[in-house]
Design goal:
Helix content: over 70%
Radius of gyration: 15 Å
Shape: elongated
Order of helices and strands: HHH
Number of helices: 3
Distance between the termini: 28 Å
């Protein structure tokens, strides 16, 4: 459980650190990298949630599962908008 919390904190740090670049090409590349990063983050969050639920120890009402759900929803919004600053 502690490892999952640590990983969630790492993901939060990664998603809250915007990249500043000087050229349009760099911005496009950064946006693509960011979308890939959001995809990876989303996959990890979903995997953690599903794994915890499958153990039978956690239910959808547990605070950890609800936090994972919140972060999954945030990642999905960022992915659908294509914006790193939401």
């Amino acid at each position: 459980l502690e490892n999952i919390k640590n990983e969630l904190n790492k993901l939060k740090e990664v998603s809250s650190t915007p990249t500043v670049t000087g050229t349009l090409q760099s911005h496009v590349s950064d946006d693509n990298d960011h979308l890939e990063q959001v995809d990876q983050q989303l996959g990890v969050l979903i995997e953690h949630r599903d794994t915890l639920l499958q153990t039978g120890t956690y239910s959808h009402n547990d605070a950890l599962i609800q936090e994972l759900e919140r972060r999954i929803q945030e990642a999905m919004k960022r992915k659908s908008s294509g914006s790193r600053y939401q």
